[in-house]
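With this grant's support, we have settled on a layout for protein records. A representative record follows, to show the layout.
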Amino acid sequence: MKHLPPAVALVLVVLGGVAAAAQGVVNAELGERAGNPVLGAVANNLGGSLLILLGLVASPSMRAGLAALRRARLPWWTYLGGLGGAAIVVVGTYVVPVLGVAVFTIAQVAGGSLGGLAVDRAGLAPVGRLRLTLPRLAGALLGVAAVALAQLGRPLGDLAVGLVLLAVGGGVAVAVQSALNGRVSAAGTASASVAVNFATSTPVVLLVAVAAGVLAGPAPDWPHAWHLYLGGLLGVGIVAALVVGVRAVGVLRAGLALVAGQLAGALLLDLLVPGGAGLRLPVLAGAVLTGLAVLVAGVRPRRPATRVSAEPEREPDGRLVG
């Protein structure tokens, strides 16, 4: 699969972020109506997995991509990207009620930015090694500050240090997930990478649900509103957008673009959904600043850094250094 131009890839990731905002709303409401927040995650992953199975039947490119992965013989750990997605779902389910949405979101984005810088520098994503430059560091910090601004006015929970660190770790896990999924897509296709992601994450979510006793006892009271079951479809789109974005611009900028889309999506939901909060200036400012963070992180330094390994390094926009 050829790389898309960085601008096009970033637009797709922003749209994926809008989808992520909607996914969070429908999954949360589904879990609330069904009686347990974990059930929203279960329905999300089962719905996504069903779509993947349909894709395997209908899409020759997905089957060809999976066949290419078998021939590529990638290290086994490259297929574990879906564990990052499962981790943040599980962490969020149990941490949000204690920390509150605001603290959890800020901690997650902080972890995602830190993880994005680290995996880009290590060359874990298919775009290659991206240097740790002042613009990239400034973009990461600006992104965290923008999200903190967007959370103004939200109630805070108990600031338990251990749970905050757990949320940060969840953000790092998502950054690693994006890098590994991108690496898998480079060896196969984007659709094959999405399939591998759900094949890894869905069993973990189901095991957590079983361990928590959510699936034991009386059957859940599943709501009849069809739109509450769109989480899986949205999830497939989000993972696919990140795969494309990571291949074009690296993990950090793709992650920041996703956050910008999430804030924009939250703003749209507040404005369009009946009974929504309306225009929230902190969210609007946070979305604008996160978009600025994406641009700042992509600024090219004037002087190329000295290479430290035989593997080619790249500028923040994905082009080779030198």
